[in-house]
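Inverse folding, one chain.
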């Protein structure tokens, strides 16, 4: 790959609600950025869907915008994006029905049935992955019973990134990180046929693309080139998906190091050298295969991210820009208000799986302010992060990214609750950065990773708050244990 002063790599992060493109030069400097929203359709009954054509259009919009902002050529296109859900396509890459998001809850009752019948535990023992309603297995099984014609028309059942790749390159593929949940044996990086059979999907096995070798390079075909306004034959890399891409882009490299992504998903990941787990433990989380053989990310992606704060802001009439100020108006402990943050209609998926999980607030009084309610919710999300990192085995340095860490006070709450400093990369496009770093290695021009991630700041914990939040976390665990006995669909 040419890496002269005039050659650039475009990293594209296709998020759930926002598609971002960042152009990097060979020194790791982002020289152009663009973003545009994707439509997320929330339908009755907990259904959440997206339109592939609209999402593909967002990719074209941001790529064309950033490509027009730089002088010189584009050396490659590096893609990452949201994982899970189900993106059904035909052999030409056209959707056979709207994509079903990882946020979708149509398979809630099915997942509860699988939990009661031992299916989730059987799959967990074979793949180290805890299934949840928005994972491909549950959605495929639901469609097999309620909408089999969609599966009949499909040639491939995949994910967001590989759906875009198919339309840009004509290749049917899937990155090993996306394939990690729910059917992949992470140790062998191949599908576990008995896990597929346990979900009743052996007859749909042909819809699963075989995982590509790490750092596989594709090429823009004529249609993809016309869509993006880039040359046909341009190198394209596809993955890893956004969670591991963020870890790579932030600088997670040593076993035990972790990253907190405070986005739509509260994703907590820890790097490890082997997929070891207790097969009789809580069937939740997953081991994500990284681009490096023998390297994995133990991921606990909770459903309690920034969407919870958006909900609170809407309900309380708060501008998102005012969150930081309001958090400062309520002291640790939120005036006695406590919360459980499980607002997703599909419940929770890490560090436990329960489609019936729901939020609650306690300790409210006539003296409770909007700031108290908001702070209680932010503290509860931080407690959920601690719960996830305890399950994932965090022992080393902690990095953080996502929209949530744009709030300095919420980031300090995370540091206080987790009892450790947090390194926040200075460039918010860490997912795109991680995808570009993988692309550079794939094309034989690896960059100086230390230099690429050196622009960061450290948020220190406040010792006077750490002890206070120790008790707060204990109270959170007590409330959670009591609530889990009461939830039902």
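Residues assigned per position:
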């Amino acid at each position: 790959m040419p890496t002269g002063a005039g050659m650039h790599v475009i990293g594209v992060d296709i998020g759930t609600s926002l598609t971002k493109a960042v152009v990097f030069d060979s020194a790791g400097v982002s020289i152009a950025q663009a973003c545009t929203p994707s439509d997320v359709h929330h339908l009755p009954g907990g259904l959440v869907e997206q339109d592939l054509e609209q999402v593909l259009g967002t990719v074209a919009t941001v790529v064309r915008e950033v490509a027009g902002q730089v002088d010189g050529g584009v050396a490659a296109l590096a893609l990452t994006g949201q994982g899970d859900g189900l993106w059904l396509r035909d052999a030409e890459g056209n959707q056979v029905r709207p994509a079903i998001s990882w946020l979708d809850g149509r398979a809630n009752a099915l997942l509860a049935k699988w939990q009661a019948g031992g299916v989730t535990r059987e799959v967990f023992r074979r793949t180290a992955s805890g299934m949840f309603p928005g994972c491909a297995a549950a959605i495929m099984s639901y469609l097999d019973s309620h909408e089999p014609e969609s599966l009949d028309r499909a040639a491939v059942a995949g994910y967001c990134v590989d759906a875009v790749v198919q339309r840009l390159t004509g290749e049917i593929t899937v990155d090993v990180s996306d394939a990690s949940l729910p059917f992949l044996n992470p140790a062998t990086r191949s599908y576990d046929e008995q896990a597929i059979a346990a979900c009743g999907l052996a007859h749909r096995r042909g819809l699963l693309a075989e995982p590509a070798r790490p750092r596989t390079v594709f090429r823009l075909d004529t249609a993809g080139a016309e869509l993006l306004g880039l040359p046909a034959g341009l190198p394209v890399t596809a993955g890893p998906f956004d969670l591991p891409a963020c870890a790579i882009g932030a600088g997670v490299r040593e076993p035990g190091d972790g990253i907190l992504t405070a986005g739509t998903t509260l994703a907590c990941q820890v790097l490890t050298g082997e997929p070891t787990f207790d097969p009789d433990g809580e069937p939740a989380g997953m081991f994500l295969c990284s681009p490096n053989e023998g390297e994995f990310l133990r991921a606990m992606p909770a459903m309690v991210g920034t969407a919870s704060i958006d909900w609170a802001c809407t309900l309380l009439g708060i501008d998102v820009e005012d969150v930081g100020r309001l958090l400062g108006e309520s002291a640790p402990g939120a005036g006695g208000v406590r919360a459980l943050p499980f607002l997703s209609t599909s419940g929770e998926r890490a560090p436990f799986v329960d489609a019936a999980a729901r939020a609650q607030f306690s300790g409210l009084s006539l003296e409770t302010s909007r700031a108290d309610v908001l702070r209680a919710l932010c503290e509860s999300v931080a407690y959920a992060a601690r719960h996830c990192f305890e399950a994932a085995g965090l022992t080393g340095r902690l990095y953080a990214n996502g929209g949530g860490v744009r709030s300095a006070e919420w980031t300090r709450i995370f540091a206080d609750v987790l009892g450790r400093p947090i390194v926040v990369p200075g460039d918010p496009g860490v997912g795109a950065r991680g995808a570009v770093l993988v692309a550079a290695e794939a094309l034989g021009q690896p960059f100086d990773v230390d230099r690429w991630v050196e622009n960061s700041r450290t948020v220190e914990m406040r010792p006077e708050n750490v002890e206070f939040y120790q008790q707060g976390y204990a109270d959170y665990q007590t409330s959670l244990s009591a609530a889990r006995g009461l939830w039902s669909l």
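The first helix runs from residue 52 to 67. Confidence is low (pLDDT under 50) at residues 1-6.
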